[in-house]
Amino acid sequence: MRILLVEDQIPLIKALRQGLEEEGFAVDTSTDGEDADGKARTTPYDVIVLDIQLPKVDGLTLLKRWRSAGINTHVLMLTARGTTEDKIAGLDSGADDYLTKPFELDELLARLRALIRRGHQKKDPLIKVHDLVIDTAARSVSRGSKKISLTPREYALLEFLAFHSGTVVTRTMIWEHLYDEYDENTSNVVDVYIRYLRNKIDKGYENALILTKWGEGYMLRGADDLDTPAEEAAVEVAKAEKPKKK
Amino acid sequence: MPSLRRSLIAYFLVLLGLALLAYAIVIDRFAHETLRARQDSETKRIDEEHDRNVQDAEEKFNEQMFAHARTLGLQLRQVYQGITQEAQQPQQRRPLTPEQLQAQEIQKRVPRQFDALMVALAFGDMNPVGPSFVLQGITGYRNSRTALFGSALGWPTGTPINTTAIRVQQSFDLSDHPDYFQIHTNLSPSKPILPKGVKSLDLPLDTSGLSEPNDTRYEDIDIPQVGHVRRLVYRSFINTPSFWGRTPQPGGGRPPGVGAPGGRPPNTGDGQAVYVQYLRKLSELDDIKTAQQSNLDVLLALIEAETRESHERLRIRVAGIAGLTFVALFVGGWFIIGIGLSPLRKLTTAVSRVNERDFRLNMERTDLTVELLPIHDKLNQSLDALRIAFEREKEAIADISHELRTPVAGLLATLDVALRRPRTAEQYQKALEECRAISKQLAHLVERVMTLAYLDADQTQVTRTETDAAALAEGCASIIRPLSESQSVTFNTDIDGPTTLDTDPHKLREVMINLLHNAVEYNRPGGQIDLRVRPGHGGGAVVEVADTGIGMTAEVQAKIFERFYRADPSRTQTGVHAGLGLAIVKEYVNRLGGTIAVESKLGQGTTFRVTLPA
Fold first, then answer.
1. Which of A29, A164, A166, A215 has the fewest beta carbons under 10 Å from its own?
2. How confident is the model at residue B251, as a pLDDT?
3. Do A81 and B402 count as a contact with CB atoms less than 8 A apart?
4. Pairing relation of β-strands A26-30 and A146-148?
């Protein structure tokens, strides 16, 4: 999940970037309003964390601009202004959540997860695809009775697929949501992570859950998609692996 | 709790009460006098009437006496004239009846002298006959053949009557007049003849002042057997003088001490005089008088009561009117005062609605009176000042909390991230360094906030000593120069010294360092800073810090000495200035008795000039 962190305090940016990345988020940062405006208009962030007191353009003005421009990205206000009036002003300007400084990292993370779920019209933190269960709150994955250990990036990829289960996601979409502005966009980095994920999720199971749609992208099998034969899935997997070898 | 309305109405009512009381007393006195005058005149009238009535009663009493006496006299005359006619024409008399003859015989035996004529009408118990009138005891008439009318009414007869008795029955209704008559002739004034069985009072005859017929004399006397009586002596006459022929003999005693002295009845010589003495009890008159007196008393009491009643009625009426006036004015006054106080009430309501969220006095000036307008205006001014102060305070608190929260959030986030999972020693060290930097920034900020708080609380000590401003400036320059050069800013000094001042060196140093820091921070690479110190015109010193930095608009210049004001928020990330530096500088310069001025042009640079006294 990709997050834009708009904050003018360098120490805080440093700490948050590290903390969020360690949780599997892709983090872009901006230290002033103008820069943040440009990024928010060009990148489909999952959540924007926005301070109010910013150089050049303040957070509330920025938020109003985005909302009137039709940018509906979830915005979490993260600010030192803690009065009720400030909160009301923030929420009424179009913010989806409001957190005052100082805050605890766990709370920020939980709120971010909640906003991401809300972005995918999910309320239940547990996502089930056949015998695969993804707990988005605890960030744990199990298939059948077996717990599966994933790296943050693998988890983020699986979660992204799971939020879109039953529909095809393109490599670009995956890229846009799982990598930040500084990551080098090598052509097969997504495919590499899909293969890692398959090894952990599908290897040794009768039904493969991650399907490759040739020429389109990848798909996590939908919850009602029980009829798709395993072979077909295998074929899909084979096809999907094909470009990587190029 | 005293109420304006209640106290006003109380004062008003006290005043009203006193006024009404005064009015009531005046009216009461006036009415009292009027009524008293009326009563007096009425009393006088009644008294006069009473006096008249008493006089009338007396006159009537006397008239009645006179009328009786006169009637008696007339009757006597008639009787007497009848007798004398008989005596003058004896030949023409018809033959006498045997009874008449007998009477004649009897008459012949009585003295021929007409001694006295006496009428005795007994008083009350003395005359059992009642309403009878008997004239008797006529003697001495020579040829008297006086008709004896007898004593059919029970006159105590049985004794021969040798008088000419005249009975006049029903001549007077004497039932109510149990009075006493006594008749004398001037022939024998001292000797009334009494019928037998009738006690004579034997009143002496005093004829003084009675010279003419119909003369009367009234006198009040005491008679032992009867009491206090009024006596009327009336002179009547009986006949012509030719008839009587001779004059009665003088002399004839009378009881000593009674009647007027030495009075023989005057003989006019032209006839027989008859004196009627008529006694009437004065108690009768007294009764009338008493009745009239009691009547008068009753009337007077009535008038007195009437007057008192009128007075009482008037008092009640006055009291009633006063009470009603009091109540009406109380109620009216209550409302009127209420209406009069309504602007005050509006002001009170408006004031009571003022709170920490809304400092406006929500009311129109037109709702107020002239007296309240100054209060309203002054209050509005104060509220405005208070609102501004309150807002500034609120802003300051918000700013302080914001400024404190931001580094704390960075600190907390850094620590949270560091502790989230096991780290290498290098990672921990990095995190700790990060935290230390943030903490230093925080400490610096707290220090500045505290400095301002001390300044506000007036607890900042200014310790003046002899200070060389030039030397101080050199010291500051040596601190700032490396910083300035690290940012590619040229640092020049033009220090004219020594410039000795009596001031607080620490404060002055703080001022210079702050200004120089700003000059570096708001400068541009390749820019320049000039620090100039020179003696002031009238002693003291002038310190100038000029830069060729970004400069400020006039709008910004007006605000730079406000707390937490930052010309460019983007600079906050350096963490050194939270918009408090210039506020502290200004406060310090003020404490040192100096002034600070700023000149700036946007994009060209800024010059701060501090003028300090000697």
1. A215
2. 40
3. yes
4. unpaired
DSSP class of B124:
G
Contact A56 B570 (CB under 8 A): yes
User: Would the pTM of this model clear 0.80, i.e. be above it?
Assistant: no
Does ipTM come in above 0.95? no
Spell out which residues of chain B touch residue A83, defining contact as CB-CB under 8 Å.
398
Q: Which domains are seen in chain B, by residue range?
A: 91-285 (no CATH), 365-455 (1.10.287), 461-612 (3.30.565.10)
Mean residue pLDDT across chain B: 75
Q: Domain A2-119: which topology?
A: Rossmann fold (3.40.50)
Rounded-to-integer distance, Cα A35 and Cα A42, Å = 11
Least confident of A214-228, B158-172, B253-267, B492-506: B158-172
B466 reaches A (C-beta below 8 A): no
B402–chain A Cβ distance below 8 A for any pair: yes
Q: Which CATH number fits domain A126-245: 2.60.40.4070, 2.60.40.10, 1.10.10.10, 1.10.3720.10?
A: 1.10.10.10
Q: Tens of pLDDT along B449-489?
A: 888 888 888 888 888 898 888 889 999 999 999 988 898 89
Using one digit for the tens of pLDDT, what is the confidence trace for B2-32?
A: 788 888 888 988 998 899 899 889 988 998 8
Asked if the model's pLDDT at residue A99 lies above 90, the reply is: yes
Chain B hits for A16, CB-CB cut-off 8 Å, are 413, 417
User: For B575, which residue in chain A has the nearest alpha carbon?
Assistant: A9
C-alpha pair distances (Å), A217 with each of A159, A167, A186, B5: 16, 10, 16, 88
Q: Quick check: A11 and B570 CB within 8 A?
A: no
Residues of A in contact with B567 (CB under 8 A): none
